[in-house]
């Protein structure tokens, strides 16, 4: 178990810089914003399959970026540091700190959806890289843990079960609050025996 004080967290300036760089690139291509990238990296660190960082960069930036060499090195370094931070939180073993409010409720004038929806969509993108491996052992339990993330991602909003949850604000928030402990359960499911 990690010591919380030793977690290699990005400082405020680094978080702001990473968020802005990802946002700038998102305006150029269909890439990930900060919350989607955080969700993706969390899924990869949580799940059963290890990926090289070069593969992770390709998931976040499907096309060649407009960054110059120095900017590209900087954004990749910040993403790796974010990955170390996420790994340390998983190793710590307490409820995982999702980097946004655990709700899908947004102000009426916010057309972009909630940050949690983006985060959950990023996490689902990580699962879909190798879905069979996620469900290979104890499919029923895994489906139970993944369900709140599936719900929050909005990717399955057309399904009747999801629509029913959407109609009840309290139930929706309750479902979203299940995400942090579910992440730790999944991480332990895949990695506890390796420790």
TrEMBL record:
InterPro entries referenced in this protein's UniProt entry, alphabetically: YgfB-like, YgfB-like_sf
Pfam family, one: UPF0149
UniProt superkingdom: Bacteria
Annotated signal peptide: none
Protein name according to UniProt: YecA family protein
Organism, scientific name: Oleispira antarctica RB-8
SUPFAM superfamilies: YgfB-like (SSF101327)
């Amino acid at each position: 178990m990690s010591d919380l004080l030793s977690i290699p967290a990005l400082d405020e300036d680094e978080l702001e810089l990473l968020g802005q760089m990802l946002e700038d690139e998102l305006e150029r291509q269909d890439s990930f914003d900060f919350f989607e990238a955080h969700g993706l990296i969390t899924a990869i660190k949580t799940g059963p399959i290890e990926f090289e960082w070069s593969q992770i960069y390709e998931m976040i930036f499907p096309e060649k970026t407009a960054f110059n060499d120095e900017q590209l090195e900087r954004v990749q370094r910040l993403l790796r540091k974010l990955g170390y931070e996420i790994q340390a939180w998983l190793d710590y073993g307490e409820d995982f700190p999702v980097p946004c409010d655990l709700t899908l409720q947004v102000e009426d004038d916010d057309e972009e959806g909630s940050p949690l929806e983006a985060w959950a969509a990023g996490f689902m993108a990580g699962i879909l890289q190798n879905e069979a491996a996620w469900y290979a052992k104890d499919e029923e339990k895994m489906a139970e843990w993944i369900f709140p993330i599936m719900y929050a991602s909005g990717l399955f909003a057309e399904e009747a079960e999801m629509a029913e949850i959407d109609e009840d604000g309290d139930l929706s928030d309750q479902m979203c609050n299940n995400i942090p402990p579910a992440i730790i359960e999944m991480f332990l499911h895949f990695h506890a025996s390796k420790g």
